[in-house]
Amino acid sequence: MKTEIFEKAIRNRNRINFFYDTKEVTLEPYYIGFNHSGKKVVFGRVISSSQIKMFEFEKIFNIKLIAKPQFSPIIPLMAMVN
Fold first, then answer.
1. Could you tell me which of 20, 17, 7, 14 has the C-alpha nearest to residue 63?
2. How much of the chain, in percent, has pLDDT values that exceed 90?
3. Residues in Cβ contact with 60 at an 8 Å cutoff, skipping those fewer than 6 apart
4. Buried b (16+ CB within 10 A) or exposed e, 41-59
5. Which of 14, 34, 60, 63 is the most exposed place for a label (fewest CB within 10 A)?
6. CA gap 45, 72 in Å, rounded
7. Per residue in 29-54, pLDDT tens?
8. Helix H or strand E segment including 11
9. Whether pLDDT at 81 is above 70
């Protein structure tokens, strides 16, 4: 279920609000992948920060999709493809 919510948010460029451990996070999600330990993770920009951070799926709960407004990525995604 988490994967579907994050995939929808990435596809539609919607922000996500969730709890990570004990902290509330609002994220502009960019990419779902796996870390070096093989755990599923999501990468994105935390609101009020310019850094891209990684969050482990198993520590994420109470996910809420924020439908509006849509965001524009701060990283050049096409440069990663070339």
1. 17
2. 62
3. 2, 18, 19, 20, 42
4. bbbbbbeeeeeeeebebee
5. 34
6. 11
7. 999 999 999 999 999 999 888 888 99
8. helix 2-12
9. no
Quick one: pLDDT at residue 49? 84
Q: CA separation (Å) from 31 to 5, 19, 22, 27, 46?
A: 12, 18, 23, 12, 13
- N- to C-terminal Cα separation, the chain: 31
- Contact predicate 27/15, CB 8 Å: yes
The amino acid at residue 23 is: K
Domain at 2-81: CATH code: 2.30.30
Give me the pLDDT at residue 67, please: 78
Residues in a beta bridge with 43: 31, 54
What are φ and ψ of residue 51, in 5° steps?
-95, 145
